[in-house]
Amino acid sequence: MRNNFFYATAFCLFIVAIVIIFRFMFPQNHSYGSLAAFIAAFAFALYLHPTIATIIASYFLFFMILIIDANTQWYFLTGPKSLESIVFPLIASLIQIAPLIVIWGARRIIK
After folding, report:
1. What is the spatial distance between Cα 111 and Cα 109, in angstroms, rounded to a whole number?
2. For 75, left (φ over 0), alpha (ψ -120 to 50), or beta?
3. What pTM was estimated for this model as a whole?
4. Are 33 and 23 in contact (CB under 8 A)?
5. Is 12 exposed, middle or buried (0-12, 13-18, 19+ CB in 10 A)?
6. Separation between Cα atoms, residue 10 and residue 28, nearest integer Å
7. What local confidence, expressed as pLDDT, does residue 6 receive?
8. Higher pLDDT residue, 64 or 73?
């Protein structure tokens, strides 16, 4: 993918959709949605090869999505105590883009 913002938008919308679908499928355990999104992020990164620019764009876009979700109190991705610390969205965004970093690094090592 050539456009970094398009890649980041597609990645974030894909992850948000996976989380929301799994949270509605399993309302008693929200961790299934997070685990499914983490696994789906690997599949997305394997199919559409990430670059440093797309990883950075995905990080900041996902961070903004988490902040908006918590501030509007929708709580599709976050919880009621998510904004007690600004560190939570920073770390959660980093964890969510970790598969992009791993796949990018693996592709650099293999080449």
Report:
1. 6
2. left
3. 0.91
4. yes
5. buried
6. 28
7. 95
8. 64
